Amino acid sequence: MRCTVADQRIKTLLDNLTNSFRSGRPGSPLSSIFNIIPPLSRFDEGKRIQRKATHMLRGFFKENIQEHLATLDPKNPRDLYDAYLIEQKEARERGIDADLWSGNIAETL
């Protein structure tokens, strides 16, 4: 799979990630206030922006993993996604604990 910034989906993802990085720094005075007084955290715009970017990134990876699962040929891996999915499947077949595989990805096979 090739990604270019001409792809609107990639551009939107990159814009959201950029906004997330620019939205604030952990440990900033404002962030400290939100930690001290949790009800105020609903006003934390930086945190909302970061959650949005994280949600989009997870969706991007989940969509790509699903596409790769649908067309996976274990004898002809195309990219890192295929290599990961093949290794994951082989590990599960060998009885290696699925908890070693992070997040919901382990549940896709």
UniProtKB/TrEMBL annotation:
Domain of life where this protein originates: Eukaryota
UniProt organism field: Diaphorina citri (Asian citrus psyllid)
GO MF annotation terms: heme binding; iron ion binding; monooxygenase activity; oxidoreductase activity, acting on paired donors, with incorporation or reduction of molecular oxygen
UniProt name for this protein: Cytochrome P450 2C23-like
Keywords: Monooxygenase, Oxidoreductase
Alphabetized InterPro entries for the sequence: Cyt_P450_sf
The keyword Transport is assigned to this record: no
